């Protein structure tokens, strides 16, 4: 019998503080009524103030988690987050190809909001070789897109050029997120190699943006798992993250988590 629920897998790091990483992803999957599964790449000791410790898992442990999940439960869409090193990245690329995972969202996580490196220098550039060619959609923030392309992204024209370059690296589509823009709307740029779309929301003045990128990419994966088209998945993810930022929980003394159930307050509208 065909499964009655869409299934999504997150391949990412654990955030003990619950705002980013695997925890944000699984909360998002649950809210969007998708069955969530995880393959951990690293365990972080982390809270809203910073990252106190990082413990990378052996690549074999990542491989076995992906095998266990795919071979039994099945995966309609996967997302990657914190990957930490090239060896783990190689294993993920190998498994995504071997199992022909149908939808892959690559969130090229590099540095936490609190300023800690979550991906070593070599691995940052290896993303282009191993994961971008497999990505249904890649979701860099502005500093990440600058690292991937070597461009300085201080204008819409430059961001469009970066999007073209990222498609040239093999990704099927890209969203350059606008959370790091200095002012104006929180404006994300989507490109699928044919058409640009701008997804805009008001920018909220809030320190509670820990895990925004994780939540956004997990929401895209959830909608892709349900069989939606990429741009539609991205639009719905934008509405989800906007609601989650608009209604903060005021937890912790630093960059607090977003509110994963805020979308329920707004009947799907952000
Ligand atoms: N202050 C904000 N107000 C409204 N939307 C925001 C804000 N900060 C980020 N976003 C949105 O959250 C999503 C994640 O973006 P961003 O914060 O740039 O990612 P990351 O967590 O990878 O740095 C994007 O859709 C972005 O536009
Ligand atoms: C385990 C893990 N994965 C990802 C992030 C990035 O999230 P943010 O940029 O909001 O700190 C993080 N802080 N921790």
TrEMBL record:
Name this polypeptide is given: Hydroxymethylpyrimidine/phosphomethylpyrimidine kinase
Similarity field: Belongs to the ThiD family.
Alphabetically ordered keywords of this record: ATP-binding, Kinase, Nucleotide-binding, Thiamine biosynthesis, Transferase
Pfam family, one: Phos_pyr_kin
One MF annotation (Gene Ontology) recorded for this entry: hydroxymethylpyrimidine kinase activity
GO cellular component terms listed in the entry, alphabetical order: cytosol
Source species taxonomy: Bacteria, Bacillati, Bacillota, Bacilli, Bacillales
EC number: 2.7.1.49, 2.7.4.7
